[in-house]
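Continuing the batch. This is chain 6 of the set; chains 1 through 5 are on the previous pages. Same settings as before, nothing changed between runs. Recording input and output for traceability.
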Amino acid sequence: MSDAVLHRHREVWQRKPLLRQLYRDWYRDIAAWLTPGRTVEIGGGTGNLKEYASGVCCTDVVSLPWLDAVADAQRLPFQTGSLANLVLFDALHHVENVSLFFDEALRTLKGDGRIIIMDPYISWVSWPVYRYLHPEPVDLTQDPLLHTTPLADRRPFDSNQAIATILFEKELTRFRARYPRLAVRQVRRLSFFAYPLSGGFDHPSMLPNCFVAPTLKLEKRLGWLAPFLAFRLFVVLEHKI
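Output for chain 6:
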């Protein structure tokens, strides 16, 4: 992925109403969890969070006209205790050493500040889709809490789509022990049918707009099947002093 891909994603966002409809609900969920104060989005990509939450500083590792700053999640260019919220939408799985990000989050967040994460979730149904129909890899054997030496040839957008699933499901007990000052406020699996049928940013939609609302209602009724069907994980962490 490069800035050219982000330009293409922004064009797809403008011409694909189904995608905007799905993301609108997710952005509203994120906005509802924001605590008052300065909000920074890490990996802001297309910069869409600004439509749903005012005053957001959108950043990414590349410079783009609609973003506010260039920032590396592992070395945040913000003062200690200066932020109220850090938002990562499809960004955590791109961070090479996630432990460095959480260390930086603890440094930059004020007391009761929040980290809000939306990332891929690897379920029985989503695994083959992410594994074979998405260009980014899925590695459930990686230990995200283990600090690794940065790779010299690593590209900024290299990733592992399984990171959030490992951290907040498989290794949640270890995560809590490693970061006792980050209280886990919510871990929610969501998005069963509508999202994969939308085709995302890279494939044509297979879901007519008139079927979106009924499909989302069906997903709510089948919430108990989330561990098997979900494509996304929504996480809220709160900084406790």
